[in-house]
Amino acid sequence: MKKLLSEIPKEVYVFSTIYFLFQLIAGLNYPIFRDEFYYLDCARHLSFGYVDHPAFSVLILKIWTLIFGDSQLSIRIIPAFLGASLFFICALINNEVGGNRYSLYLALVCIIFIPVNLANFGYYSMNSWEIIIWTLLFYILLRIINSSNNKLWIYFGIIAGVGFNNKVGIIIFLVSVFAAMLISKERVIFKSKYFWSGAAIIFLSFIPYLLWNIQNDFATQLFITNAAKYKNADFSFPAFVISQITDFGPINFILRVTALISLLFFFMKKYRMIAFIFLISFILFSVNKAKPYYLEGLYPVLITIGSVVVTKFFERKNLSRTQFAIPVVIFLLGLIIIPMVVPVLSPDNFIAYQNFLGVKPGSSEKHKQGILPQFYADRFGWEDMTDKVIKAYNSIPENEKKYTGIFVQNYGEAGAINYYGKKYNLPEVLCGHNNHYIWGKERRDSLITLIIVGGDYEENKQIFDEIVQVDTTSNKYSMPYEDNMPIFIARKPKVNLKEIWESTKHYN
Does the residue 367 lie in any domain? Predict the structure, then answer.
């Protein structure tokens, strides 16, 4: 490891530090994101798995928050650090495929301005881990090709096992690796005991999550099916292709295409398997109606290889003056992208900037969009909503509070109220969304009073004899379905909540 790090130019350390600080500082401009609240809730309920993801990212967050607390600053350190570490891995890839300092700088500048990466390294989620894990796996594959050291498959298996316990989408990546080996000269590796040892490690690492799913009626499979059917936006194949240009940066698109062509047909053919992995993964993700950003782990390696190819072209054509101008131009153009994916502007200034550019980001989900794109909008309205729930809860007589619960519509609302309401001794929030449905089974039966956020008055009236609306959520920046939600106090249930709990379940 020390030898590898010594091969990385000192400029990369400076580069990474600046990026880390930028992401950390910029990320504090907007409040906590919906998914972060959910991860914090998951961390309070440690398990071998959850409805929508395995346990690795939650376990790391649990350990981290036990040591450093769960403030916004604390939890944002991890994704910012992961974003900074990506540059080190790409520097190693650059060395592995014969790059020099210039190709490295070109790659790093382009990787900075991958819009999806900029967004994902700005808040805590399994997606920021996924980018790092996939890029590490690509690096190991390149090392195996160059060195013929099959013992490296053990390391591949360990890291892939971690990836399996981070996000199940890595299944497509691993299937693509296997298929790519079958159709390339690397298939001789199938004879290696180290390859099959690595495969065994991957399989064994997945057993805890598999057992969790068996115990929970294969909840993850239902989640994936429902998400594809009801939640994820419908992308035609042409739209999916276009999204790979827009979501991952038109600036670096030429480098990605250059890398693929060179890997398939020209002097990078030694690493052709990398192109096969990308193409197979691309097809499998598009066929399975995945969100476009699910390919996020495939592009850093392509951009790095593409940078090496372009650099060698410049060297052959003796275009040194031109080549040094390119990273500068890319950097300046990239600055235009930053406000669209990193919260460096206030919401009102962002809206003005967006209108000035004439660009409105699309959504990977079917929800109606508000005045902010979803990955910004889902950071607003939570604290105000919690304050109103606290007010409603405090209006309930003390002798009634121990029989009072709080019910909301989705994991973002549940996580936010649990986070902001913990210092006011609010009861843990009930919700039928994803893992909250499972957790809610533990305490639903003893309740006779519910504070309900959202939902329909008439529907609630069918369940409770007494129901009154006491407030309404309001935040113009939040998603439309989170704005103007009624807040009810409902008493005297007509049926035991246990009997209707199943109807609240929605995995998507």
Answer: no
- The domain boundary, picked from 287, 314, 343, lies at 343
d(CA 199, CA 234): 34
The runs of H, that is alpha helices, within 69-125 are 72-96, 101-112, 115-120
Q: Which residue, among 378, 427, 502, has the nearest Cα to 38 in the 3D structure?
A: 378
Position 339 scores a pLDDT of: 94
| DSSP-assigned beta bridge partners for residue 49 | 54
What is each CA distance from 397 to 195, 392, 404, in whole angstroms?
Answer: 65, 11, 10
Task: For the sheet with 430-431, list strands across it.
Answer: 430-431, 404-408, 449-453, 486-493, 464-472
Domain assignment of residue 285, given as a range: 2-343
Question: What's the pLDDT score for residue 9?
Answer: 85
Same-domain status, 334 and 392: no
Rounded to two decimals, what is the model's pTM?
A: 0.93
On whether both 84 and 134 belong to a single domain, the answer is yes
Domain count, the chain: 2
> What integer best gives the mean pLDDT of the chain?
90
Residue 191 banded pLDDT, cuts 50, 70, 90 = confident
DSSP-derived 3-state class of residue 192? coil
Contact 85, 108 (CB under 8 A): no
SS3 content of the chain, % helix, strand, coil (to 5): 65, 5, 25
